[in-house]
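Team,

Forwarding the record for the chain on the shared tracking sheet. I've put the sequence and predicted structure together so nobody has to dig through attachments.
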Amino acid sequence: MNRIILHEITKHYMDGLKIESKLPNVGTTIFTVMSALAHEYDAINLSQGYPDFEMPEPLVRLTSQAMERGFNQYSPMAGWMPLRESIASKIQDLYGVVVNPDSEITITPGGTYAIYTAFTSVLRAGDEVIVFEPAYDSYIPNIEVNGAVAIRIPLQFPSYQIDWEEVKARITPRTRMIALNSPHNPTGSVLREEDIAQLRHLVQQHNLLIMSDEVYEHLIYDHEPHRSILRYPDLRERAFVCFSFGKVYHCTGWKMGYCVAPPAFTVEFRKVHQFNCFSCYTPAQVALGEYLKDKHAYRSIAQFYQQKRDYFGILMKQTRFKPLPSRGSYFQLYHFDHFSSESDREFSIRLTKEHGVACIPVSAFYQEGIDNGVVRFCFAKKQETLEKAVERLVKI
């Protein structure tokens, strides 16, 4: 009875308040919508980006051992030092760069958290941030909740490359930062050397900061190098570079990531971090610190996922879908507009309900819903999952 009365009093009190949303244009994400539909219609879920296979067994064992050994309390705010040291060794091994694990690496509860904290550390009301669309859905809300403005620039279709002439035209005295994502979600495109050259010129000319989302760092194919911002000293000195453990070690539910940034940037990053999260799950940090000592743990990932990408591509040749190139991430885009006049959202919903396969309409990655008749499939699935999905897709 008391609970009911309290609820009614609270409701009455809240009814008299006006709460002005800081994110008035944000609703339920398309990922939640499509995953819920997949569950409702018992569809094969190739929409949301997560594997349906187990994480590496040695990493499971190391995590269990960490708990058994008593590593169950708070870790340091910046992260477990042996893990930060392992990350620094990995960066030096891959990119030939020396990073200070004490002053330049912060462990975070996921890559998305790292991105939000990077934005929040430096953006002020009225600042402008260049964002390339289609864009990962957290960028623009992260920018706007800080009172800043997202300057949206579409990637060139169908190559999904950056139009640097348009970037130059959109820079103003208020431009504070450029947000980059390579390998790119949702398109699978990657930065090339010509992109890096253009970027270097612009950030120097206009004194811009960089937020570089590199959560698919190890998922890059066809012998392409990953052009991490960390490779380039002049870019690295003005960048927050964000990574994810969940994406590369098949443990998205862990929500573990990290941010690499220059010492002065890291100081500001940790000011926000310490009052938002403070510390991350200790057993996983202890396990990852040990696991990363084996170079094979990260050097084998690209081959593992390229085999999945290639196998899915072979299977999809049986269907009417037409692929766009995917050079990174664990996503593959496909055209459908040559056999259906539906919007990509209508098509994705019908595909889920009538054919039992869930995907993501790429228009969801544009604020204005630009629809090029393309959908995104996630191929981070077991072989049998991909086979069952294509068995259904061939019937369309």
